[in-house]
Amino acid sequence: MKSRTLSFMLAVFCLMLPSAYATDQAPMIVDEHGQATVEESSAPAPEESPSLWDSLVHPAPPEPVEAPPAEVVNPIHPLFAPLDKNGLQVRHTGLPMATETTCKTCHDTGFIQAHSSHHNDTVKADCLQCHAYQGRLEVSPAMLDTTGNLRRDFMTLSAPKAENCALCHGYLHTDKAPLTLPEDFSSFTARGAPATQGYDLTQQTGEVFSQQKLNDSYLNLADKENLNQSWDVHAARMLECTSCHKTGNNPEQVQDQGKNLSFLKQDPRGLDTAQYLQKPDHRLTKTQCTTCHDPMAVHEELPYKERHMARLDCRACHVPKLFGPALKELDRSILTDAMTPRTRYRGVDEANPQNLNTTYLKGYHPFLIWEKQDSGESKLAPYNLVTETRWMDEATGEDVPDAALRAALFDGKGYVAPILAALDSDGDKKLSDTELRLDHEAKVEAVKQRLSTIGVKQPRLKQDIVAHKVHHGVMGGDVVSLSCANCHDQNSRLGEPIPLAGFALPGVTPTLKGTEKLSLSGSLETKAEGLYYERGSHVGDAYVLGHDRAPWVDLLGLLIFLATAIGIAGHGGLRIRARLSGKLESHHVPMKRVYMYSLYERIWHWLMAGSILLLALTGIEIHWVGAVSIFGFDSSVWLHNLLAVIMIANAFLSLFYHLVSTDIKQFIPPTATFFEEALAQAKYYLNGIFVGAPHPMAKTKERKLNPLQQVTYMGLLNVLIPFQVITGLLIWGVSQWPELAQSIGGLTWVTPLHSFGSWLLVTFVLAHVYLTTTGHTVFSNVQAMVSGYEDIEDPSQHGKDGSHDH
């Protein structure tokens, strides 16, 4: 019975097909007499529409879709049926594929979104943007097989590639064709974001990720014929972005797979591939350079290697220059005649480049700025500072969009009359580059009035100086400059002023942004050339020899040295006047020749004198790099350390000699008669020396030093030289014993103390050299230290030849 009913219904259905699904009839026309006729069409007869039966049994083939390149097809990813937002197959509903439901069949999308760097309050990246070819997968019927699964030749899902990251982050060039900048590179439609693709990294810092060599590009680069290096060494090594920016729990990224670390709650090595693919942690890590490179295994040419590695971000040296156009100004306070924000780039020769592919690109050196680390110390890292200017409505706290600014500044023919009247200083009805800037209050007020007319309640200018760290553009080999002057010169890159804008906004104080971890101790300064950031000499414990200063140390040390020099000049002048007046001729003291200084004493003396002199010269060059050039900074550092070793060894040998020979007593002043003898010696230097009086204390082989000399040498040998040795060792050993140096303030305190000790040591040498001239002749003391023999007063002969007796 059921089969008969079904057959009957099918027969009725088939009989209805010709009438129900017949082709359309020609239209009937009723004439003025009421006669109906059929219009004969001159158009070609339409093709016969297929019947419903044909469409069911022989469905029309779907529209062809161009397949992606074969090299991007993933042969491993399982086939799947694309689902719409309701979880139904798109082949039935015709709705777009939804990753939330499609990917959820195998992956825990809830976990991924909750553990993702690209899914939060400000970023809502879709799975396809990172995992599909060109960041999209628009499913059509032609891309599905008979079961509704996505065909294999359209399966482009894979781990994220550099091309996916470049869709939002920066300019990536992978073609074999010579590199050029995209046409939309400078097209800004929203604050900080280009029109169709994100070039943020390139615009903010000048980074271009390309394996191509610089001189193979079509860009107009300065010194192009010598630029034989790639835009980025990691791109040249075919690394992907995920080589450094890894997912946190990927078991393939963890070294020492077999090691059991049971104390870890979440050890990636405990995951198998299936578990990881179900719940991959998308909080991407930022791999350090030291993850792949061991800087201590190379850099043999670098002195104080440990210290440099502790204080320098690798990119401070390995990103010496960036050749991509990096923003200096993004000015949304006014629009150009093309209705676009006013932009200025670093390293671009022209003031207002119209075509960055033909403009002369000189490149720029990233600015080295101290970056605070979690350890508490600071590292020098490369940055670019971008000045962003915009209007905001103070009543709502929201930025004024470009569309509103266009409506305020332009009519259908160009700039509105009030804007031209305020900005067009030469009256040519056009706004040149120098006119197109709000550098006067009247110009600011004119734009403010126009914004008010379109409904902005309280328009106010706001300017931010945003710091962007340089991460890419890494180079190696001879391109990396190893010149010490890059950092240690007084005029090095560490203290160079940073140009921010071509002019200063009247009444607007810029705000620093992105500088929470930066040590910026300078100030904003307005010059004739524009707005600059003038940097301080040093910050915190980050003290760079040759560049940084402690002005109070140099001032105090210089005053002590000058006071001593002035005293010596005055004292010497009085001696010369006394000799010229004949006062010294009336007194003659009998002399005798004595072997005063042994060979070792003379060697020790001249070795110590030479060491101190060369230490002072090399120290001056280290302290005033660039201002004084004697041996070269790197040679001075090496020689300074060598001389310090020689001086320390000489001092210890001298101590051993004087202890064994008991000559140590030469330096110990007598306790009973010290004050009396010291007073008599002082009177001699202040008066007796000008009248030819004999020394109050006769010099003998057993007692070579007078009381004042003994006190001076006691302070020199027991205080000043040990002080210099200790502070010098702390400076030298700051990389070996950083905790010890840090406990007393680091180089910020140790180096100025060492510098002050150097001033005192140089002052002593000056006084010592002068006092050697106070013997019975100007050079008698020096001659004695050369030959060992000295003519000294003979007290036993006093009065025998008519001389006075004291």
Word description of this protein:
It is built from 24 helices and 19 strands. By secondary structure, the protein is α+β, with helices and mostly antiparallel strands. Strands 7, 8, 9, 10, 11, 12, 14 and 15 form an 8-stranded mixed sheet that branches. Strands 13-17-16 form a 3-stranded antiparallel sheet, with no helix packed on it. β1 and β2 form a beta hairpin. The longest helix has 31 residues, at 551-581. 25% of the residues are buried.
Topology:
Blueprint: H1 2-20, E1 28-30, E2 36-38, H2 52-57, H3 90-93, H4 99-102, H5 109-114, H6 127-131, H7 162-166, E3 171-173, E4 188-190, E5 193-194, H8 200-205, E6 208-210, H9 233-236, H10 273-278, H11 305-311, H12 314-318, E7 326-335, E8 341-346, E9 367-372, E10 378-393, E11 398-399, H13 402-409, H14 417-423, H15 441-453, E12 459-469, H16 485-488, E13 498-501, E14 511-513, E15 518-519, E16 523-527, E17 530-534, H17 551-581, E18 591-595, H18 599-623, H19 633-660, H20 674-686, H21 707-732, H22 738-743, H23 747-771, H24 780-787, E19 789-793
Parallel strand pairs: 3-6, 7-10, 12-14
Antiparallel strand pairs: 1-2, 4-5, 7-8, 9-10, 9-15, 10-11, 10-12, 13-17, 16-17, 18-19
Helix pairs in contact: 13-15, 14-15, 17-23, 18-19, 18-23, 21-23
What are the salient characteristics of this protein?
single chain; 806 residues; alpha+beta; eight-stranded mixed β-sheet; 19 strands; disordered N terminus; disordered C terminus
Can I get a quick summary?
By secondary structure, the chain is an alpha+beta fold. Helix content is 34%, strand content 12%.
